[in-house]
Amino acid sequence: MAAAGTEASAARSPGAPVGAAVARTRRPPPARPARLPPVLVLLAAAAAAGPGAGGAARLYRAGEDAVWVLDSGSVRRATANSSAAWLVQFYSSWCGHCIGYAPTWRALAADVRDWAAAIRVAALDCAEEKNQEACRTYDIHFYPTFRYFKAFTKDFTTGENFKGPDRELQTVRQTMINFLQNHTDGNRPPACPSLDPIRPSDVLSLIEKRGDRYVAVLLEDDSSYVGREVILDLIPYERIEVKRALGSDTAFLQKLGVPSLPSCYLIHPNGSHGSVSVGKPLRSFFSSYLRSLPGVRKKPSSLPGRPSREESSEAVIWRDFDRSKLYTADLESGLHHLLRVELAAHRSLAGAELKTLKDFVTVLAKLFPGRPPVRKLLEMLQEWLASLPLDRIPYDAVLDLVNNKMRISGISLTNRVEWVGCQGSRPGLRGYSCSLWELFHTLTVGAGAHPEALDGTGLEDDPQAVLQTIRRYVHVFFGCKECGEHFEEMAKESIDSVKTPDQAILWLWKKHNLVNSRLAGHPSEDPKFPKVPWPSPDLCPACHEEIKGLGTWNEGQVLLFLKQHYSRDNLVDTHSADLGGPGEGAPAPGEKQEGSRAPPEQPPADHGAESLRPPSLLPPRPRLSERSQPGLDLPLGSRAGGEGRRGAEAAAAFLGMGFSSLDMSLCVLLYVASSLFLMVMYFFFRVRSKRWKVKHHHPSV
C-alpha cells in the first residue's frame, strides 16, 4: 500500500497501509494554515477528475487522455466481437503502484494512438464500487492486471494475461505487436495490415508495378520491430502502403543499394524507386518521413465513439479535522471498502484464503474500536464463519451478511465512503490505503491493551498473532500486488524478532515509516500530506531527540504516543453520523436508495458451480437477547410497538434468508416429489396387504 506521507499521509498501499494518514497535515489544504473554511468545495479537483468522477480518483480522463476509459457497463460491449483487439489495464485508483504507472500507460496510449483501428489501449478502475462486479467477472485479484482481448471474440472471455519481462513502454508495445500477430487470418482486425515479412521476389515484383500509391518497404533484421511499428503507425493514412522484408540476403541488399539495416526503400506512384535517407534509422524518423510525402493524408475517422461515462455533478467537499485524532468515519469507510470491494475480487473462498479471512475477521471482531452496530456485525460475521462446516464458501454469502439482508436491528455498516482524516487534497490520494494503515495500527494497539479479547480464538498468548494475521491478509487479499510483495519482504526480514505486544506495535510503526520513506516523492504522494517520518515533532515533541547532533527516536515515548493515538478514547465520531446511525441496516442488494443512481449494466457473471450458494450458508441467528421482542400488547402507533413490528418483520424475512428463487423452487419441487412418493408407497403396500389377506384367507365351514 503506498503509504500516505505523514501519518496522515502514511499509507497508500500495504507496501503501505495508512494509519498515520490522519495525523499529519503539516500544511492544511487551504491558504490559512491555522484553520480551514468549514466547507471548501474543491471544484477544481472534481473537474480535474474528469467525467464520472463521483468523488473517486481519475488516473485517466476520458476525452483528454488517449486511453479508452471503460467501466462495468462498457467493458463487455467494447471487447466482445470487436473489430479491433484490446489491451485493458484493470487498476485501482488507490493503488500506489497504479498511480506511479499511470504516466507510462498514458504515454503508451498516446504513442500507439494511430494503431486504434487494430488494437486499443484501455483502463478500468476496480476501486469504483459499480465496477467491482465486472472485476470479479474478469477474475481480477491484483492491481494492476493487464489483459489482451482478441478481435471478433464472440464468446465471453476474461482475456489473456500480459506476458512480458517488464512493463516498460517499449516492452508493452512490442508485446502488443506479438499479440496482433497471434491472430489468425480469420479473426485478424480488418484494419491491421499483414505484419509478416515479404520475400525478396515480392519486393522486386512491387518495383516493376505501377500504382496510385506509395509503397514503402522496411528492410530490417529478424529481431527488429521497427518495420512492424511503422506499418501500424501508417494505418490511418491513405495513398501509402507499408511492408517489411528481412535483410538476410546480402546480394539482394546490394542490388537495391541498401547500405545498412534498418532502411526504407520507397516506390513512388510514377514508378521511380530508391533507398530513402533519413536522419536516424529509428521508427519515429521513418514514420514522420512517410507521413510527409506529397499526397499522403489521414483518412476520415471511421472509429466508433469512445465509451461514454456519466457526467458527475458531485463536488469534493473538504472536511475540517484534527490531525491528532482518529475518525470513526475513516475506519468504517475503509472497512466497507475492504469487505464489499476488495474481498469481492474472490468469487469463492477456500483453503488458505478462507483461513486467512476467518482469522482476520476474528481479529476485527475482537479488537475493532468502532461503533456498536459495526462491532455487532463483525461479531456476527465471525461467529458465522467459525461455525461453518464447509471448506469452501462463495463470497456472495459473506456479502449477504455484511449487507444485513436479514434486517437484524442494531447492526449496520456504511455502504459508502466518507474520508475525514484520510481525505486527500484531490481524488485518488490517500483514502483507502490511509484507512487501512490506521486499521492495522488500531488492531496492534488494541491487542496490547486488551490481550484478553483474543482468549478462546486460537490467537491468544502469541505477540505476533495480530501482525501475522495482517501479513497474511495483505499477501492474500490486498489488491496492489507489488505493495503486498514489499510488505511480505519486510515481514520476512524481522517479524520473527517480535516477542511482546509492545514490540508488535513498534514493528508496525517502523515498517510504516519505512514505506513512507520509500514512497516519498512517488506520484502517489499527496503534496499536502508529504510522506515524512511520523509522528512529527509538533504532534509528539517527546518522541524526538538529538544525540550528538543527530536526530533520533525515543522509542519509549513513541510507544506511549501510539497507544494513546490509536486507542478507543482517541476515536471521534464526527461525520460518522453521515454513514448511517446505530440500528440502521444497510439496504439489501438490488434496493435503490433515495437519490441514488441505478447501477450501470453489468457484464454477465460466470454461472459456474462456485457461484451457486448452498442453502445451508445462512448467516447466524441473532442471540435471543439481541432479538427484537414483538410488543403485541402495545399500541400500534407507539415507538415500542413499531420496534415490535420491525422485530416481527425481521423474523419473517429470516425465513427466506439466503435462498434464491431457484432454491425455493427446488424446495417446493422436492416437497411435492416426496409427497407423491409417500402416497405411491402407501397405496402399494395397502394393495399388497389386501392381496395377502385374500390369498391366505381360509373361510370356515
Strand order of the largest sheet: 4-6-5-7-8
Tell how many strands the DSSP assignment holds.
Answer: 21
**What low-confidence regions span 5 or more consecutive residues with pLDDT below 50?**
2-56, 308-314, 581-658
The number of distinct helices, counting runs of at least 4 residues, comes to 20
Structural class: alpha+beta
Largest sheet: 5 strands, mixed
Name the average pLDDT. Answer: 78
Instruction: Compute the CA-based radius of gyration.
Output: 32 Å
* Helix content estimate: 25-40%
Shape: flat
Strand content: 5-15%
Report, as a whole number of angstroms, the end-to-end distance: 100 Å
Compile the SSE list and pairings.
Blueprint: E1 2-3, E2 11-12, E3 40-41, H1 43-49, E4 68-70, H2 75-79, E5 85-91, H3 96-111, E6 119-125, H4 132-137, E7 145-149, E8 160-161, H5 169-181, H6 200-208, E9 214-220, H7 226-233, E10 237-238, E11 240-246, H8 250-256, E12 263-267, E13 273-276, H9 283-291, E14 297-298, E15 317-318, E16 326-327, H10 328-342, E17 348-350, H11 351-367, H12 372-387, E18 392-394, H13 395-402, H14 432-449, H15 465-477, H16 481-494, H17 501-519, E19 544-547, E20 550-553, H18 555-565, E21 571-572, H19 639-655, H20 661-695
Helix pairs in contact: 3-5, 7-9, 10-14, 11-12, 11-15, 14-17, 15-16, 17-18
